[in-house]
Design a protein that fits this description.
The chain is an alpha+beta fold and 444 residues long. 35% of the residues lie in helices and 21% in strands.
């Protein structure tokens, strides 16, 4: 690492991938260094992280103290880190001269598996309550969540101890079949004639070889009786709220199986969703406040991809000029705001996602985000916003208010998509520019 690169890292300040450890008050012990390395190894992201020893929290460069007599041997520090991490971490260490002192720069490559100290301590670099990067301890559930975020574990496929076949509701199996029937062409119709047990086996939500030996989390979420869902999946909850400023008109919470909860919220959407008629030339076009297909896809995504290891409800909030849907758990690792439309699908709960696809509720192409954007835009509404999402919550906001002239915008967007333009990320960001070009072509 060059002195210029090091200075740029220090000038930028501490981030989720850069941590300062000063030794002005005293030398760091081995445990402190190992825990800081483990913390950075378990961060979110695919780029290298850096631990800078000899830089104070406020960015002052005070230098690293020698660890091996009068000097520090980088090879010995690297060997210490490899010996006291599980799995063993291979890091790159350099002593960089800056401002007349030596800063020890430890480069930590991104890891797929969670990393612990040899004492079994798991730590992760996250934003603390004050909004600043911090190292926080990880319990067993946090480790499972990290594995799920990285696509190494399917929480919905985990066997739930003590759950039995008798805890599943035959009415929910029939509800699933009804969804398949109502969505013929989009659903897996081979499931229609299967009895309950064979249907559960076909979906992979039970462990059965003759008799049922285990019930998976996905089975309880899809088919569980209400009391069983409350008992075995205490983190599951869905809230439907209608807000008018600071006033709460509706505030209902459900701990029902997922398909039943979706049907209830869809019914409430249809009851509240108004439609306007716009004239485009001789054509009369009906434009709902919110496209139901986009809302259904966003709600299904929230239920499928939420982190069921975290406490908290999926909130469907109907506000005066927008709808906001939030779910516990941030984006899966590798999914960010700037690649949301173009990144490969990364379901947090693959078994549950597959069941929703086979029921015809969500797109079998796994491009539900595209559908949400497309339906909003083709109805002349602003693109949905995920800007309020963070590492703990995904938030999808669908606004009702049209931007610019509603009639012309609506027609221009429909012509634009009918022309076969691909819904790519860059196009979504610059959509208004494309619309302006269409308006000129159409003579508006």
């Amino acid at each position: 690492m060059s002195p210029e690169t090091l200075r740029a890292l220090i000038t930028a300040g501490e981030t989720l991938a850069v941590e300062f450890k000063g030794e002005e008050q005293g030398p760091l012990n081995d445990r402190q260094i190992i825990e800081a390395v483990v913390c950075l190894a378990n961060r979110t992201g695919n780029d290298c992280a850096y631990l800078l020893i000899g830089v104070e929290d406020d960015g002052r460069i005070t230098g690293a103290r020698p660890r091996h007599g009068a000097t520090t041997d980088p090879a010995k520090v690297a060997a210490l880190i490899a010996n006291r991490t599980r799995p063993a971490l291979s890091v790159r260490i350099e002593g960089v001269q800056l401002a007349g002192v030596t800063v020890l720069a430890i480069e930590i490559p991104a890891q797929r598996q969670p990393v612990a100290t040899s004492d079994g301590v798991f730590l992760r670099r996250v934003l603390g309550g004050d909004g600043k990067p911090a190292c926080m301890p990880m319990d067993g559930y946090a480790v499972q969540s990290l594995l799920a975020d990285r696509g190494l574990l399917d929480p919905s496929a985990q066997i739930v101890p003590e759950a039995r076949w008798e805890h599943l509701d035959p009415l929910e199996f029939e509800r699933f079949r009804r969804s398949v029937r109502e969505r013929r062409g989009r659903s897996d119709e081979s499931l229609l004639d299967l009895p309950d047990l064979e249907l559960a086996k076909a979906l992979g939500v039970v462990d059965a070889n003759g008799a049922v030996r285990g019930v998976r989390l996905a089975a309880l979420l899809l088919f569980g009786k209400e009391d069983a869902v409350r008992r075995f999946v205490p983190t599951h909850e869905v809230a439907f709220q209608v807000l008018r400023g600071l006033d709460v008109e509706v505030n209902d919470f459900f701990r029902w199986p997922l398909l039943r909860a979706m049907e209830e919220i869809e019914a409430r959407i249809r009851a509240r969703n108004r439609e306007q008629e716009l004239m485009v030339g001789l054509l009369r076009v009906g434009v709902p406040d919110y496209p139901e297909r986009a809302l259904r896809e966003a709600l299904a995504n929230a239920l499928i991809h939420r982190d069921y290891q975290r406490l908290g409800a999926v909130h469907f909030q109907w506000q005066r000029d927008q709808i906001e849907i939030t779910s516990p758990g941030g984006f899966p690792e590798g999914v960010r705001l700037d690649n949301l439309l173009v990144t490969a699908p990364r379901p947090r709960n693959p078994l549950l996602a597959d069941a929703f696809k086979r029921a015809g509720i969500v797109e079998r192409t796994a491009r539900g985000i595209d559908t949400i954007f497309y339906e909003q835009l083709r109805n002349g509404r602003p693109a949905p916003s995920y800007a309020r999402s963070n590492e703990a919550t995904v938030s999808a906001g669908n606004a009702r208010k049209c931007t610019a002239n509603a009639r012309v915008h609506l027609f221009a967007r429909r012509v634009h998509f009918a022309a076969g333009a691909a819904l790519q990320q860059a196009e979504a960001v610059n959509l208004d520019a494309a619309i302006e070009a269409n308006l000129k072509t159409l003579g508006f």
